[in-house]
Amino acid sequence: MLPALHSTSPPRTVPDREHALRLLDAMVRQAGARPDLADPADAAALSLAAVERAFGLYEGRITPDLPADRAFVVPSLISRHDPTRGPEIHHLLPLLDARYGVTPSWGQHLLAALPPLVLADYGAHAGHRGVVLQAPVTADLVTDLTPEASAERISGIVRDTVDLARKRFGAHVVGLGATLPALTRFGRDAVPRGVGAAVPGRNVPAVTTGHGGTVHLIRSLTLDVLDSVAVGGGPLRIGVIGAASSIGGSVLTTLLAALPDTAFLACDRPTRLGRVDRVVRAAGGEARTRVTADVGEVLRTCRVTVSAITERLDLDELVPGEDLTGHVLIDDSRPSCVDREQWHKRGARLLWPIGTGTPAPGPLHRRGDYRYGPGIGLLNSHDLWGCEAEAAVLALTGDVGAALTGPVSPEAAARIGRLCDQAGVGTAQPQSHALPTPLTLSAPAPARLVLPRPARERTAPRSSLLLRPRPSGQEGLERITTLPAIATLGTDQHLDGGEWIAKLGEDRVFMMGDNPALPVMPDRPTLADFFRLRLAQDRFTALHLIHSARRARDLDLGDTVVTACLLHDIAVGGLLRSHHGHWGAQLVAPYVSEEIAWAIRQHEILRFFPDPAVGYDYPDAYNAFFGPDYRPPGHVRRAYRDVRAHRWYMTARLITLNDVYTFDFDPAEEIDISEFEDTLGRCFRQPREGLGFDGSPVAHMWRTMIWPNNFL
Predict the structure, then answer these.
(1) CA distance linking residue 33 with residue 11, whole number of Å
(2) Does residue 121 belong to any structural domain of this protein?
(3) Is-contact 698 590, C-beta < 8 A?
């Protein structure tokens, strides 16, 4: 057993390789001695290699392959009070996973013995690449020590990390993430000492707080939300929690300027309300901003709220039993100031202000698909925290003079925003906790306020051949997008017909015809058009189909199998997930051979059953998808016996053998099936009238994909 540790943070002196190795050895011996724990052999080897690399870099025995133009420094999330925290480091130190019996206290002791760790790096650019460094700082350090002692110790650790970025990588910009700016006096205590007259960007890195990038992305995301949520019969009121903080005050000022006719509710602790009043007066927002210390009031009455605090909020205490359907919380903290599941169960949505670069590998793209950990990180490896984006754009544009070492002003945030535009950083897909979050929400009516909000121009989506939406007779009206019952039954998003009808108003009608948010389909759409303009809305599935077909073609399995692989999950990307094999087979049956349609239908059954004779094992991904103890229901097991004896069994089995479960795709790849043109010419009968208009028994299914948001 691992010996007991004190319930406080471990002492920190200097990195100690021998102590770190002793800790690793103790962890391995404990896991090996307990039959209820996972075998630690592989995790131990990977963890040991990571420790040796860390010390090799720290001591100068290992040289990076390229110098770094910037470093993004983050603290550790490991906490004694939450054993689920810390997965952002498990790819380097898998032995810290709870499966091996290691407690958070032991994880903290190991980190205290280590030098700063390289969590990830970015694609190369002009002979440089950025790096992500983890400073061995945890939230427990703040609570375990006195304010003076914790500030001194944390500043020293961060200073060592910045010095490593300077000495070993040559970084001339260092961005601070999470709470590090607040713990280092906006980065001023993080500048390395003993280098003579410090010139940021030259003999010492330009240290920046990242608050400008955060405020810029909060502003952009807030405006996107206001464009997307259903607003009932009137405008919204916006809440700002933590309005006295550097970020919160700047967000409030920025949004007051961006939305001159919108009402605000600004909130902070009672002792900080004077500061909030001064922020409001300086922005000229007294007439439309009320100041309060009641967080519950903000969450209840503001349909859109921005939070700039790190404290955890308990919804059951603040808004007990309150229906928050249609409310949106934009949260600057990580993991979050509210429990995502608790918030979503109330009908609300949680969003993080995240930036994004191009999906193609490059200087804004973390290599190795690193996303800062499952459940607490980002959706894509090219998505960026606001503070991460700030460091990147300072380095890529060379404007180190824009580095922030004090409270962020709206002007400073706007300057960072312009640099983001210059460097190609935009607003990411709406998300939180590494999960996508739709912006289009159901909302209660009527709205609570009467202040009008000016309309903002929106960029029209790309459509096929620049086609314009067909006239529907609904021009100039607000069109409500309804959700199909099959997609919402059993969820808190389900509404009955009366609830939908209650949303109608004088200028509000149900969507019929072309949805402006989707590309317009041509009058005679082909299969390629559906891939490009509908299935491409789910790039994951579309690329999965293309790669499965490509793999079958490369193995020379013939036109029938290649076509079946290309179409096997078409219902997932365009129609329905449940029973997707059956829906997909029905969708394409009039246009393909009976064998192809049968194979598509039955691959849904075969995917659950191994066949060692042909090398098909139960997919590892399914353990993650459904749980390791999942067992298919009885009707599936009975169907398998029939499918196994069918003459076309191997055609369906070859679909499962060529199903690509790694999903390791090039993010820049286009959704284009032209490479299969000859195969489809032999195996897919394209109707001259276009899919959906040929009078076939399934034409209505294709039309449903053309106009998926029609009310009827």
Answers:
(1) 28
(2) yes
(3) yes
**pLDDT at residue 200 greater than cutoff 70:** no
Total domains, the chain: 4
Nearest partner of 6 among 154, 145, 114, judged by Cα: 145
Alpha-carbon distance of 230 to 505, in angstroms, equals 12
Nearest Cα residue to 216 out of 7, 414, 12, 439:
414
Q: Which residues pair with 479 in a beta bridge?
A: 509
In the numeric block, the tokens 């010996």 are attached to 3
Q: Is 386 domain-assigned?
A: yes
- Cβ partners under 8 Å of residue 114, min gap 6: 15, 20, 51, 54, 55, 136
Average pLDDT, the chain: 83
Q: Compute the half-sphere exposure of residue 542: CA atoms within 13 Å on the CB side of its CA.
A: 21
Given the structure tokens 């939406």, which residue do they identify? 469
Question: Mean pLDDT over residues 248-259, rounded?
Answer: 95
Q: Which domain holds residue 241?
A: 212-436
Which amino acid makes up residue 125? H
Give backbone dihedrals phi and psi of 324, rounded to 5 degrees, phi first.
-110, 30
Q: Are residues 218 and 366 in the same domain?
A: yes
- Taking residues 113-141, what's their average pLDDT? 92
Sequence-distant (6+) residues with CB within 8 A of 457 are: none
Burial class of residue 451 in the structure, from the number of CB atoms within 10 Å of its CB (0-12 exposed, 13-18 middle, 19+ buried): middle
Judgement on whether residues 491 and 533 belong to the same structural domain of the protein: no
Say which DSSP state 366 is in: B
Q: How far is CA 573 from CA 91, 160, 699, in A?
A: 31, 49, 17
What's the CA gap between 537 and 601, in Å, rounded?
A: 23
Q: Looking at the domain assignment, is residue 712 inside a domain? A: no
CA dihedral 352, 355, 361, 367 (to 10 degrees): -40
This model's pTM is above 0.85: no
Calpha distance 460→464 (Å, rounded): 12
* Contact indicator for 590, 575 with CB cutoff of 8 Å: no
Angle between helices 211-228 and 246-258 (to 10 degrees): 40
> Rounded to whole angstroms, how far apart are CA atoms 548 and 618?
17
Indicate whether 409 and 479 sit together in one domain.
no
pLDDT of residue 486: 63
What Cα–Cα distance (Å) separates residue 128 from each residue in 72, 164, 363? 14, 16, 9
Residue 334, SS3?
coil
Confidence of residue 5 (pLDDT cuts 50, 70, 90): very low
Q: 194 and 236, same structural domain?
A: no
Alpha helices in 645-674 (DSSP H): 649-657
- Terminal Cα distance for the chain, rounded: 64
Domain end marker among 187, 208, 229? 208
286 secondary structure, DSSP code = G
At residue 474 the predicted structure's pLDDT band, cuts being 50, 70 and 90, is low
Angle 175-372-13 from CA coordinates, rounded to 5°: 60
Q: Are residues 228 and 195 in the same domain?
A: no
* b/e sequence 550-568, b meaning 16+ C-beta within 10 Å: bbbbeeebebbbbbbbbbb
Amino acid sitting at position 548: S
